[in-house]
Design brief:
This protein is an alpha+beta fold. It has 2 domains: 127 residues, Gcn5-related N-acetyltransferase (GNAT) (Aminopeptidase, 3-Layer(aba) Sandwich); 63 residues, 3-Layer(aba) Sandwich (Aminopeptidase). The chain has 7 helices and 10 strands. Strand 1 and strand 2 form a beta hairpin. Pfam families: DUF5645.
C-alpha cells in the first residue's frame, strides 16, 4: 500500500488483501457500485491468474479510509493498454461526493496531463467529474455513464439463449473475431481491437456471436462480449448486461 503519506488524497493498493477490503466496502453500495466493483474484481482475478499481460491496472482508495470494509469509500481504478488512452473508473459511496471532489482536484494519480476516458461513472459521481473536468478546460470530457441495465437476480438466472432462427448459427467468439467486432463498434478507437481480442481470450465462452450458416467462421451478424464478474457482486440483482 503506497501513497497518501505525501498529502495525496489517494493511496495505491499494492497487495491483494487491501484490494479485497476495498471490494468488501464497495459491495455494501451495490448495485450502484457494480461497474467499478466488477472492474476491480475482474482485474484482481486476472492478476492472480497471471493473465495481466500487456494490461496494467492500478487500484486506489481514499488515503484516510485505511482498510475499512464499511463506511464512506472512494475508489479509483486506472487501466492502461498499449495504444489506447487510459480508462479511469471512479466511484464514491459518500452521497456528498466531497472526497471524490478532493481526489479529482488534487490527486497526482488522475492522469489529467494526457487524454483519457472516464468509464462507467455512476450518476451520483457525474457532477463531480464534469465539474473538475470543466474547471480544467475540458468542455466536453469523455465520460461514459452507467447506462447498463440490471435484471432482478431471479430473472437474470432464468435467462436462456435460444436458437437465433433459420439460416443463422450461434457460436462463441474467438480472438480472431475481434477485428470484425471492432469494425462495427460505434466506440472503436485506436487500440480497441486489441482490447476486444484480449477480453474474448481471457473470458472464454462468455462472448457470443450470431453468424450466417454460409459464413459460420466469418463476420457475426450481432455479438455480445462480457467479462466474468464476481458472483458476490450480483447481490439481489443479476449480472450487469
Amino acid at each position: 500500500m503506497t501513497g497518501g503519506d505525501d498529502g495525496d488524497p489517494l493511496r495505491k493498493l499494492e497487495q491483494s488483501g487491501h484490494v479485497e477490503c476495498l471490494l468488501e466496502a464497495l459491495g455494501k453500495d451495490l448495485p450502484d457500485s457494480v461497474h467499478v466493483f466488477n472492474r476491480i474484481s475482474t482485474h484482481l482475478r486476472w492478476r492472480r491468474q497471471g493473465l495481466g499481460g500487456d494490461v496494467q491496472v492500478d487500484f486506489y482508495r481514499g488515503a484516510d479510509e485505511g482498510d475499512a470494509t464499511s463506511g464512506p469509500t472512494t475508489a479509483v481504478s486506472i487501466m492502461r493498454v498499449e495504444g489506447m488512452a487510459p480508462r479511469v473508473a471512479v466511484h464514491t459511496t459518500d452521497p456528498s461526493c466531497d472526497a471524490l471532489h478532493r481526489v479529482l482536484a488534487a490527486s497526482k494519480h488522475i492522469p489529467w496531463s494526457e487524454p483519457f476516458l472516464f468509464e462507467s461513472v455512476h450518476e451520483r459521481c457525474t457532477p463531480a467529474v464534469l465539474a473538475e473536468a470543466r474547471a480544467r478546460g475540458q468542455v466536453a470530457p469523455l465520460v461514459c455513464p452507467t447506462d447498463k441495465m440490471l435484471l432482478p437476480k431471479d430473472e437474470g438466472l432464468r435467462l436462456q439463449v435460444g436458437d437465433p432462427g433459420p439460416g443463422l448459427r450461434l457460436r462463441a467468439l474467438e480472438p480472431h473475431h475481434a477485428k470484425a467486432v471492432n469494425d462495427k463498434w460505434s466506440y472503436a478507437n485506436p487500440g480497441s481491437e486489441r482490447m476486444l481480442a484480449k477480453t474474448i481470450e481471457r473470458n472464454s465462452g462468455l462472448s457470443w456471436g450470431v453468424f450466417t450458416e454460409d459464413d459460420p467462421e466469418g463476420n457475426s451478424v450481432v455479438c455480445c462480449t462480457k467479462v466474468i464478474p464476481s458472483p458476490s457482486s450480483w447481490g439481489e440483482r443479476g449480472p450487469a448486461g
